[in-house]
Amino acid sequence: MTTTATPLRIGLLGTGPWARRTHAPALAAHPGAELSGVWGRRHEAATALADAHGVRAFAGEDGLDALLAASDAVAVALPPDVQAPIAARAAAAGCHLLLDKPVATTAAGAHEVAEAAARSGVASVVFCTLRFAPETAAWITEQAALDGWFTARGQWLGALWAPGSTSEYAASPWRRDKGGLWDVGPHVLSVLLPVLGDVTELTAVRGPSDTVHLVLRHACGASSTATLGLGAPLGAVGTDIELRGEHGVANLPRWGGALDAFTGAVDALAEAVRTGEPHPCDVRFGARLTELLAEAEAQLGPAGPAVPAGS
What we know:
Helices cover 43% and strands 23% of the residues. With 311 residues, the protein is of the alpha/beta class. Helix 2 links the parallel strand 2 (33-40) and strand 3.
């Protein structure tokens, strides 16, 4: 494990749109990190992304072990239930973890990663975008320092499958299967929990398409609601989080985008490695998010894929 000021060697696991557009360029440009290679399940995809950034490509089981051996940390851009066992394997190899959200889509899978990180003593960060974008991270810290919150409202609606959508993520099998609850739910919860405290009661109700409405009671006594979905019409998309309490109304500010946020997540992991102090948005927090989302899913009951095949 790295404990010096030398660049953190970070291997990238994954070759999809998220890896290509966010992880790889941010890691390649980060002054405190060295992109140590790219691993993919398909050699061709790993080679294409690695070549674009002038690093070595790795593929398959042997390639994964080789990249872990050449890295101080891994950044994971894989579907959640592929991510979980690979992240546990990386932790067992002594690699620090920069994970995507959700950590897994089962509590057991998320706990497996958290336990592997604890056993190996590696640092971890879960990349919930709003926790690391400079503008929103500062806002969350400011609101969490205040008492007297009464209620909050969060909404994150996307239009991945709407006519006219050009999103690369529309073809993602796990998003089509699990919907907005699992994809954008972690983002909203990652804001509400540090400000209002852990969730003590949760109720989930289905809305149109894949939309899910959550009603939450928090440890501080405040309540909140969250509306989450990826299947909204193009005209309905947007993200909004509002807090109300003794100090008035506070609204989530605009933020600069995923690249700046991911750079902040790399900074956070490097700081946790250097100091040995866990980051608040680490794998244990990620596991708690998975527990809450799994509880909501259990309340909703089976409804088939969020987006039927062929739509």
